[in-house]
Write a structure and sequence with these properties.
The protein has 471 residues and is an alpha/beta fold. The chain contains 15 helices and 13 strands.
Length: 471
Amino acid sequence: MDLSPPIAEGPISKSKILNQKSKISASPTIAAISTPFGEGAIAILRLSGPDSIPIATRIFHSRTPVPDLPLRTQTFGRILDGNRVLDEVLLSVHRAPASYTGEDIVEIQCHGGILVTRRILDLLLTTGASLAEPGEFTRRAFLNGKMDLTQAEAVMDLIRAQTDLALSAATEQLEGRLGRHILSLRESLLSLLAHIEAHIDFPDEDIDPATGAALLARLDSIRESLSRLLRTAAQGQILREGLRTVIFGTPNAGKSSLLNRLLGYERAIVSPHPGTTRDTLEEVVNLRGIPVRLIDTAGLRPSADSVENAGIQRTHQVLSRAALTLQVADASIPPIPATDLPAPTARTLLVLNKCDLGVHPAWRETPSAIRISCKTGDGFDALTQAIFDAAMRGSVSPDDFLIAINARHQACLQSAASYLEAARHCLDQSLSPEFTALELRAALNAIGDVAGRLDSEELLGEIFSAFCIGK
């Protein structure tokens, strides 16, 4: 009985790989400045493609010709535009396939002036290179098999990481931790599909109850693994975008003072006059490794001032999109109900400020409130712990964040979960194995989309367009 898995359409299709390889070989040599715009000590320019070394040979002059330079070793020389010296630089050669993109790469380190860097790039372009599109170097690395799509996306996460925890999660994904989980899921699903296909090949042998129960158990195990990955979506959103936390309340409760205390510097204007904050202020703070996006808002109260009312309207808008809200109240006076609040869409922490002035007896019925003083700093350990707990969302430790899927992964895995649910229904109802196999194959393709199927140009274009030019 042949139990070898069927050839899956998508991620491992040999014809698609060869097709993409032919596209790469026909791709022009690209060039870009890989360091941020502006003045600096050093700027880096990169060439990638079949003509990288010939182009560098035409403009770089040293004692040793570029084709004969030792690999991955910096060599001192000059960039010449005709007889004119543009700069003295260091140049290194990385030959295919042992390079970032899998193609021949030349890297030039020049002095970091805006004009000289631009002049060298212009020279590369007039000598035969094309200007790289955003993310094109990493896209070529993916298409050349140097990394899967989860690792390519991790490159951007690594660049944008704002906390140590976000950095660690991006590094883990870049090293292939998420990819290995996806590969394990695919292998388990392929094995299950192989057994179903075997029963299709031998229709006279019905799936007996014992075998059916074993298949159901294996399918449920795959579904549970998939569910564990899906539960990391919220964590991934926090690491990449920050926990969107809105500070709101009545005027003069200390909202701006709270923002300043959490940030550690004076970002918002603090005044005893009501209505000082007219617009939203947004800043990101690293809170125990979690990026928290703090949004200070205008105080909620009836007002005849059109500008203040515009700020209050913005308060309502950001509250409707918050992941966490901090409702700030003055603990030294009786509660003042905030007017016309939208229906709560996020967890809310009641924060009683100005406790250094004493706590009014009316607040005794709110034991869950967090009591602080922005003036003295009392209570901030409890507040930061509460915000941290809200960000963790039941996770046992920050290590739980080290595998964190993004929105694209989530959509693919949710689609796979739906197909697996349908496959389970087919098995449970003892339907024809063909129906189960159909759903399992669809789930297999959906899971394969996480690591990146090579026939989805639109998907790749959308992903890599968010990258920096030169990466």
